[in-house]
């Protein structure tokens, strides 16, 4: 599969390049990105270089599809659909701390979800979302996108910090994407 560029009113989602390595490296120094994602910890520049080199290979296999979220040619986060198989994919994302808020992540995620469900895109039936239990920021974004909370998977997620309980949610192509109550979110 060839990489696809997605555009929204404010953003361009495209494959990160060598020009984005510094932005990726800087963002992945954030404690919460290292805690709640699968990026290595500590995160070194070589990790960002390896990530950028791997993305075109992943697009070629069609199993893991990542985009850099760019605003005015500056990379501010990443988003992707991962573990794509049998009509199912999993949404994952992070935003650089200084670019959180303002709805940019929701805007990028909506574009990815729309493309993932579209017949001219991946024609998925379901998109899952998982996060380390306690990652309230990510959960709020997923809920806003219309994901339905499906439960806690005990000790199911592994990253550089060890093994964690994970929250899981799902969105079906036929769902209306209206935010639903999530029992793990108080607001």
Question: How would you describe this protein?
Answer:
The chain is α+β, with helices and mostly antiparallel strands and 187 residues long. The chain has one domain: Gcn5-related N-acetyltransferase (GNAT) (Aminopeptidase), CATH 3.40.630.30. 28% of the residues lie in helices and 33% in strands. It is built from five helices and eight strands; from the N terminus they run E-E-H-H-H-E-E-E-H-E-H-E-E. An eight-stranded mixed beta sheet has the order 1-2-3-4-5-6-8-7, sandwiched between helices. The protein is globular, with a radius of gyration of 16 Å. The protein starts with 5 loop residues before the first strand and ends in a 15-residue tail after the last strand.
Task: Produce the secondary structure layout.
Elements: E1 6-7, E2 12-14, H1 21-27, H2 31-36, H3 45-61, E3 65-71, E4 74-85, E5 88-95, H4 104-117, E6 126-132, H5 136-144, E7 148-159, E8 162-172
Parallel strand pairs: 5-6
Antiparallel strand pairs: 1-2, 2-3, 3-4, 4-5, 6-8, 7-8
Helix pairs in contact: 1-3
Protein name: RimJ/RimL family protein N-acetyltransferase
GO cellular component, one term: cytoplasm
Keywords: Transferase
